[in-house]
Specification:
heterodimer; A: 668 residues; alpha/beta; Aminopeptidase; eight-stranded mixed sheet; 24 strands; disordered N terminus; B: 249 residues; mainly alpha; 78% helix; notch signaling pathway (chain A); Ncstrn_small (chain A)
């Protein structure tokens, strides 16, 4: 903290005279007014984002140390070696190389106490993806797993490291660079700036090495959250007899990254989520939507980055006919249209999307056709759709895999901004931020989806071209949602989010989190994260039929089929008629019984059951990182020795002086 | 492990004070009382000073002169307090002397008076050290140390411990010089004390310069040594004179 540097010295001066007066740093306003201030200046708490280790059912090893203290060393060159146990300060653009090297170099591995990753220097980075080349390949419903959907993927996220890894914020990067420079310069050897890592990566109890044992010991919770689905128009319970076939439109709401709290996932998958919300908004303005031949059901799945938790749990609930999916059934699902990554579709001046159809059934061909007619209807907006290359082994990693795993003949399609390889060069990394997506690309996808849904839902009816052309997306809504869901400013405190919920944190994070609710009573979960809550309220609001009376409410509504939108907002919410529900999203291999989570044995009827990693996150206190200067132990002992010598010498002098004086006095 | 360092710094700052207390003050109850009174006096003076200066603080500019004014006024005030303390002591001494006359016991002798002034000075010094150094030392017992940008050679705690030691010596022995000077009405001693106090205080401003602490702290120790030497000579002279007088009478 260079700015406050003079303050302590002034305090030293004040020690001479008047420390009660707050001494001030010259230049800036940083003051050192009390001993706690001094302690704060000594121990710099560094703002950083830890890498949290998760457990799966096959286990991760827990080294079990609680605090690590090591000198901060800059690791600039890829051939650098370490001389002692060190906290390595690493530029982000060397992270991949470093972690790959560490995995193959046990000599280096042993000397790493922790890794601090710098936040800056990312401008010249062209690609960075810590995920695998084929993310979540265990869930692929096809056998060719050698395809590289994510060619930039290094897979470093899935290796295990016995040292903590922290991503620094821009400000703390500066601080730590200064300290590392000081360590390089100081040749005296008795002073070093060190980093102290608190409880690192995991705090699993000893002996709980995998999800099953830690869940039994209740020292962890399963990853999960709440998915949300809605129908347009609302499904009234009286009409259950003659239900329409369903077109499912899905998107994911969660991402993953090396650093838990820095998982924005702007292109993958939040661009798809924004497109879905915008398409719902566009379709909600149609008046004759209930006259269409098919029922539109929109679902936003949570936990998709961690084993397609949301979509698989949704399908399981459908099979079990749970309350959360009351009104729809898996037999009615006619088509599945997934909106994948759609934020980077603009390549040659116009948006170009690829339709990845599952199989070659006539219905999925019809879906591609519908997308193409929608693209034609958009005319001058020039939004193009192409069928994905037939050389692809199948659909790219997506929730559709869950549907195909359940029933391989499900007609489905994933709309993506890439053909055979991700156009997102920062897949599942901290760099997949708002700058990585293009709002007009997302708006084009939303328009395309909205119009093709109208075409698909019309089925064999002649398409009303006038109505079709009135379907227009609100581009400013896309931009607003990008601001809300992908940026810290305004973040979740933006107007549209605040009109529905009172967010707990303005900076959005799309890490799935842990499932904190009890699985029972999912109709009104006691806990849903901000994003799920916002999606629920937004969808409920947009899909509500106009007939809903607008009586104010704070929780539940009395009338059947009515829900309370914006219940948390000051002044209460309003009751609307809408079929919008939360569905729990957690591993299908988990069961909550007697207040404990149990891992179920592999279900032979579910092909994905064995592939399910059953991710859990341990309970941990705040994971902190602080840096400070330490002295060599010999220096400490030297100080003590000097203190003792001074005291002893002065005592000796007092005795000698006293006897001398008494001798003078006695002489008389 | 830095409990050792924290203890070391505390011993540097307060070790000599402890030696003086154990070797001299603790033997006579009235000296302990004097020490406590003096400590209280010094603390009250500090509270009054901080109350006055509160209005102007914190000093936002980086210039050194506001600190010089601060030092000047504070030294002046504390020297005033010393005079008040002297008056109070004098009154007590008269009372004690008359009381001693009444019960036909000997009056306070010269060494007693000197011991009282020593205890008074030690009270000032200890209050200073406890207030300005010991309280700051608590973080030194932790893992970390602290270096100030402008003083990269010495830990902050060592600087404050040495400064505290210097002022302990100056405060303790300048009280003996001052009381003797008032008693003898000797102008040179009366002037010596405030001048030394002021010089030592202004000297701490050297710490504001980059690397200044390496020069400032030894210089302060020199000032402390000079005070001690001056005091010793004075005490020697007075005792010899008295001895002469008694011898001749």
């Amino acid at each position: 903290m260079g700015g406050g540097s003079t303050a302590p010295l002034l305090a030293a001066f004040a020690c001479v005279f008047l420390a009660v007066f707050p001494p001030v740093a010259s230049g800036d306003a940083a003051t050192l007014e009390s001993v706690p201030d001094l302690v704060k200046a000594m121990y710099i708490n560094v703002e950083s984002f830890p890498c949290v280790r998760l457990l799966n059912h096959s286990g991760q090893v827990d080294p079990g140390h609680d605090k690590v203290i090591a000198p901060i060393v800059r690791f600039g060159n890829r051939n650098d070696q370490l001389v002692q146990l060190s906290a390595v300060l690493l530029p982000l653009n060397q992270m991949t190389d470093f972690f790959l090297r560490v995995s193959n170099d046990p000599e280096l591995y042993r000397k790493i106490a922790g890794v601090l990753v710098e936040a800056n220097g990312v401008d010249n980075m062209l690609e960075f993806s810590p995920d695998r080349k084929f993310p979540q390949q265990a869930f692929a419903p096809y056998s060719n797993l050698s395809h590289h959907w994510n060619p930039t993927g290094s897979g470093i996220m899935w290796n295990k490291y016995d040292f903590p890894v922290f991503l620094l914020s821009e400000e703390s990067t500066q601080t730590l660079q200064n300290l590392a420079d000081k360590n390089e310069k100081s040749a005296n050897g008795y002073l070093a700036n060190v980093a102290e890592f608190d409880l690192v990566m995991q705090t699993t109890k000893a002996g709980t090495h995998d999800s099953e044992s830690c869940l039994r010991e209740q020292s962890c919770l399963p990853l999960g959250g709440q998915s949300v689905w809605t129908s347009l128009p609302p499904i009234s319970n009286s009409s259950t007899k003659h239900q329409k076939p369903i077109i499912m439109v899905t998107a994911s709401q969660d991402s993953a990254s090396f650093f838990r709290d820095r998982s924005l996932g702007a292109d993958s998958p939040i661009s798809g989520l924004i497109a879905l919300l915008t398409a719902v908004d566009a379709l909600s303005h149609l008046h004759d939507i209930s006259n269409l031949k098919k029922q539109l059901v929109f679902a936003v799945f949570n936990g998709e980055a961690w084993g397609y938790l949301g979509s698989r749990k949704f399908l399981q609930e459908l099979d079990q006919g749970a309350d959360s999916v009351n009104g729809i059934s898996s037999l009615l699902i006619d088509q599945v249209l997934e909106i994948g990554s759609v934020g980077k579709a603009i390549s040659q001046g116009y948006p170009l999307f690829y339709a990845h159809a599952a199989g070659n059934s006539s219905i999925s061909m019809k879906m591609v056709d519908a997308l193409q007619s929608a693209s034609e209807s958009l005319g001058s907006d020039n939004v193009k759709v192409k069928p994905a290359a037939s050389s692809n082994p199948g659909v790219p990693p997506s929730s559709l895999m869950s549907f195909l795993g359940k029933n391989s003949s499900t007609p489905g399609l994933v709309l993506e901004d890439f053909d055979s390889q991700f156009s997102n060069r920062f897949y599942h990394s901290t760099l997949d931020g708002p700058a990585n997506v293009n709002s007009s690309s997302i708006a084009a996808a939303a328009a395309l989806i909205a119009r093709s849904l109208y075409i698909l839902a019309s089925a064999d009816l002649p398409i009303d071209l006038i109505t079709l052309n009135t379907i227009k997306v609100n581009v400013s809504l896309v931009e607003e949602l990008i601001g809300c869901l992908l940026k810290c400013d305004p973040g979740l405190s933006c107007g549209i989010v605040k009109s529905f919920i009172s967010p707990s944190n303005s900076c959005p994070s799309h890490y799935v989190g842990v499932f904190q609710d009890l699985p029972a009573g999912t109709q009104f979960p006691s806990y849903a994260d901000d994003i799920s809550q916002f999606i629920w309220n937004f969808l409920a609001d947009r899909t509500s039929s106009l007939a809903g009376n607008s009586s104010s409410c704070t929780g539940q509504c009395h009338d059947e089929g009515e829900i309370c939108v914006g219940a948390e907002v000051e002044g209460g919410g309003r009751c609307v008629v809408s079929t919008t529900r939360y569905v729990p999203a957690y591993s299908t291999r988990l069961k909550f019984e007697d207040n404990v989570w149990h891992v179920l044995p592999v279900n032979s009827s579910d092909p994905f059951s064995a592939a399910d990693p059953v991710w859990t996150e341990s309970f941990w206190n705040t994971i902190g990182l602080r840096v400070y200067a330490v002295q060599a132990t010999s220096y400490d002992w030297l100080v003590l020795l000097i203190g003792i010598i001074i005291t002893a010498a002065s005592y000796f002098a007092v005795i000698v002086g006293r006897s001398y004086i008494s001798k003078i006095i006695k002489r008389d | 492990m830095t409990v050792a360092a924290g203890l070391g710094y505390a011993l540097v700052a307060l070790g000599p004070a402890f030696s003086l207390f154990a070797g001299v003050v603790a033997r006579k109850p009235f000296l302990v009382l004097t020490l406590l009174t003096s400590t209280l006096f010094w603390l009250i003076s500090l509270i009054i000073l901080s109350g006055i200066w509160r209005v102007f603080l914190p000093i936002r500019s980086g210039a050194w002169w506001p600190y010089a004014i601060l030092i000047l006024t504070s030294v002046a005030f504390q020297e005033g307090i010393r005079l008040v303390f002297w008056r109070l002591y004098k009154k007590t001494e008269e009372m004690l002397d008359s009381f001693a006359d009444r019960i036909s016991k000997p009056r306070l002798c010269l060494t007693d008076k000197m011991l009282i002034s020593l205890a008074g000075g030690l009270g000032h010094g200890v209050a200073h050290a406890v207030f300005f150094c010991l309280s700051l030392l608590t973080p030194a017992f932790g893992r970390a140390t602290f270096y100030v940008e402008k003083c990269s050679r010495m830990p902050f705690f060592l600087v404050s411990a040495i400064i505290s030691l210097g002022f302990l010596v100056i405060h303790t022995f300048s009280m003996i010089i001052a009381f003797n000077g008032y008693d003898e009405r000797k102008r040179s001693d009366q002037v010596f004390v405030p001048v030394v106090h002021l010089i030592a205080s202004v000297m701490t401003l050297i710490n504001l310069a980059p690397g200044g602490c390496v020069i400032g702290t030894p210089l302060l120790c020199v000032v402390g040594a000079v005070t001690l030497q001056y005091c010793w000579q004075m005490v020697w002279r007075r005792l010899s004179e008295q001895q002469h007088r008694q011898f001749s009478s």
